[in-house]
Design goal:
Number of strands: 21
Strand content: 5-15%
Structural class: alpha/beta
Largest sheet: 7 strands, mixed
Helix content: 25-40%
Oligomer: single chain
Mean pLDDT: 96
Bound molecules: thiamine diphosphate
Low-confidence stretches: 1-12
Strand order of the largest sheet: 10-9-11-12-14-13-19
Distance between the termini: 82 Å
Shape: elongated
Length: 676
């Protein structure tokens, strides 16, 4: 039944491959409905599009056998991650059609209430996890869902769809490699419809068949006739059986064809007409219908009756959806839905008492406490297991928690974060360690588009902790010294914290894991072993979004975070001898940040300097300064001043790095402020 990579799809006659499984006549007749329904819905959608009642449509006409075959071959609790042409997954999984039509038409009462378009949503009860626009970005999520199944010991498998074009994306490679290395129960469903928008496969990849790549990843691969419904069914069943046996992932390449344009507005002049003629003969719905008639399971009349029945149902549902109101909301309601309510108690913080611990030890202690307390906490990252991480934060963790929970990843920042989404959707609390904060750029898309937006888009929070060792001062050069906060404080749906003391490092870490939202935790490398302080033993949390007065004063306020707190306290000490009493506010959390504590300080001092190590231009200080200026103008005796790193990459040489660092300019800046 499998055609091995390199062989051609048959072109002479196009019979259906009879199933090796015992499919009863009733089952085959019901499978007909599964492949027919999306075709008929699409035909209706094309009418609505022409009537201007639908804004956009990505057609899957001609490709239905792939989605329908996957749905039919898998169990109801196996996850499927469809793409933009896979209506058949949603209908085949039995989603409520009334809600689905409202979703497709962008109406109130749809699955996302108008927040997302077409298939960009998931329904966990039906084990369907929809896409984001960024191609291949859901493949690492599939790995995470499969890992969750593996950790829980269920028999679930996960099928993740990807187009021929999207196989060129980095996430395809990272996810395929991760699935193979971790032997995950994943089925990569490559839907090769021969074009990625207007680009033919000859300009997309240079191998003969995409399934050849399976060899390189060390997984099973096969080319399958994607327009032969039963061949798809058989291939997916076999792949699922292999995955359930513990034999790992498969890469199935289904050769099919897109019988419409990329999307309905884009036309299809770039596709030679002969291809439509050729593939039209292999129409998957008609082929299966012909097979059923040939087998005596249907007559042309009974097939027509099924069509009529389904069309009537669709017409009624569409009329109902068209009559539904447009989404209606308020900015308050939309804002309130970006985050899940925090589960961290708002109680007062414990005394700053306890054994003296270094900043790095406090992070380790917090992680260990969290892992002991909650068996669902899983830590993933490069070299975090036996090696203990490059900063030794997780030293000894494998011995205590085992390899299943302390997971070395390949060098894959993007897929590690994507996999964390899958874990979070399945109730785990993943922690992803970036080896250096600088490498978080490789996971940027997953963090800002996938992690941050899922809660708002389809109301499923994906709580996780992403740890990033940041900052310079160690002579490590432009790619091991950066402060990354401003790239992320701009993103609704994330929380960002930056502790400056061991006490806060532990309390914020535990809060981040309990919060119920994705939290980016910025730990400053220079503080790891240079800062010590009392850390309470046992479990405690510091609510995210609460600043602290690190030093009280009345002449001016320095608002800062991370290593800036250390600098500010040093300068405050020094200038106290000149009679200047500086107040230092340690923000601790950047998103959200504690306006009230800052505003109260400004009321006391009337002068503010905003300080951070990151470059000044476009830095988070701009947000702080403009808010203070806007809200506190009447209380200010001087313009809000900013001090940040020089607008250059962080240089390697210590002498040059000092030029970058704002620390050397801090005393002058404070003098300017108090003397203004
Ligand atoms: C990361 C990314 N780059 C570009 C696009 C724009 N885009 C949307 S669909 C598409 C073509 C996708 O081709 P393929 O993966 O083969 O899937 P098909 O549309 O053929 O089903 C492109 C380029 C995108 N959505 N995401």
């Amino acid at each position: 039944m499998f055609r091995s990579p390199g062989s051609d799809t048959p072109t002479a006659e196009y019979p259906i491959t009879p199933s090796a499984h015992d499919l009863t006549p009733d089952r085959l007749r019901s499978m007909y409905r599964t492949i027919l329904l999306p075709r008929l819905i699409e035909e209706k959608m094309l009418i609505l599009l022409r009537q201007g009642k639908l804004s956009k449509w990505f057609s899957g006409i001609g490709q239905e056998a792939v989605a329908a075959g996957v749905v039919e071959a898998l169990e109801a609790d196996d996850y499927i991650l469809p793409m933009h042409r896979n209506l058949g997954v949603f209908t085949g999984r039995g989603l409520d059609l009334s809600t689905l039509f409202r979703q497709l038409l962008g109406k109130a009462g749809g699955y996302t209430g108008g927040r997302e378009r077409s298939f960009h949503f998931g329904v966990l009860s039906h084990h369907v996890v929809g896409m984001i626009s960024h191609l291949a970005a859901m493949m690492p999520v599939a790995d995470g869902l499969a890992l969750a199944a593996q950790l829980k010991g269920t028999r679930q498998v996960v099928a993740t769809f990807v187009g021929d074009g999207a196989t060129s994306e980095g996430d395809f490679h990272e996810a395929a490699n991760l699935a193979a290395v971790w032997n995950l129960p994943v089925i990569i469903v490559v839907e090769n419809n021969h074009y990625g928008l207007s680009t033919p496969t000859s300009e997309q990849y240079a191998c003969t068949d995409l399934a050849e790549r399976a060899v390189g990843y060390g997984m099973y691969g096969a080319v399958v006739d994607g327009n032969d419904y039963l061949a798809v069914y058989e291939a997916v069943r076999a792949a699922a059986d292999r995955a359930r046996r513990g034999d790992g992932p498969s890469l199935l390449e289904f050769k099919t064809f897109r019988m419409r344009g990329h999307e309905e507005a884009s036309g299809m002049d770039y596709v030679p007409k002969e291809l439509f003629d050729e593939w039209g003969k292999k129409d998957p719905v008609l082929r299966f219908e012909g097979f059923l008639i040939e087998q005596g399971l249907f007559t042309s009349e009974s097939a027509r009756d099924v069509r009529t029945e389904l069309k009537q149902q669709i017409d009624a549902l569409v009329d109902d959806a068209l009559a539904a109101p447009e989404p209606d909301s308020t900015s308050e309601r939309e804002l309130a839905d970006v985050y899940a309510p925090s589960a961290v108690p708002d109680a007062s913080e414990p005394q700053r008492e306890g054994p003296e611990r270094r900043y790095v030890d406090a992070i380790s202690d917090g992680l260990r406490d969290a892992m002991r307390r909650n068996g669902r906490v899983i830590l993933m990252g490069q070299d975090v297991a036996e090696y203990g991480g490059v900063f030794k934060v997780t030293e000894g963790f494998v011995e205590e928690f085992g390899k299943a929970r302390i997971r070395n990843t390949p060098i894959i920042e993007s897929a590690a974060v994507g996999a964390a989404i899958g874990l979070a959707l399945e109730g785990f609390r993943p922690i992803v360690e970036m080896q250096f904060g600088d490498f978080i750029t490789c996971a940027f898309n997953q963090i800002v588009n996938n992690v941050a937006k899922t809660k708002y888009r389809w109301n499923e929070p994906v709580p996780m902790l992403i740890r990033a060792p940041v900052g310079g001062g160690t002579g490590a050069g432009p790619f091991h010294s950066q402060n990354v906060e401003a790239w992320f404080t701009h993103v609704a749906g994330l929380k960002v914290v930056a502790p400056a003391t061991p006490y806060d490092a532990k309390g914020l870490l535990l809060a981040a894991l309990e919060d119920g939202n994705p939290v980016l935790y910025l730990e400053h490398k220079l503080l790891y072993r240079s800062v010590k302080g009392p850390v309470p033993e046992g479990y405690y949390t510091i609510p995210i979004g609460r600043a602290r007065v690190a030093r009280a004063g009345r002449d001016a306020t320095i608002v800062t975070y991370g290593v800036g707190v250390v600098w500010a306290l040093e300068v405050a000490e020094r200038l106290a001898t000149d009679g200047h009493e500086l107040e230092v506010i340690d923000l601790r959390s950047l998103l959200p940040w504690d306006r009230e504590t800052v505003f109260e300080s400004v009321r006391r001092t009337s002068r503010v300097l905003v300080l951070h190590e990151a470059p000044l231009t476009g830095g988070f200080g701009g947000e702080l300064a403009s808010t203070i200026g806007e809200e506190m103008f009447d209380n200010l005796d001087a313009p809000v001043m900013r001090l940040g790193g020089a607008d250059i990459p962080v240089p390697f040489s210590k002498a040059l790095e000092e030029i970058y660092m704002p620390k050397r300019r801090l005393v002058d800046a404070v003098r300017r402020l108090v003397e203004y």
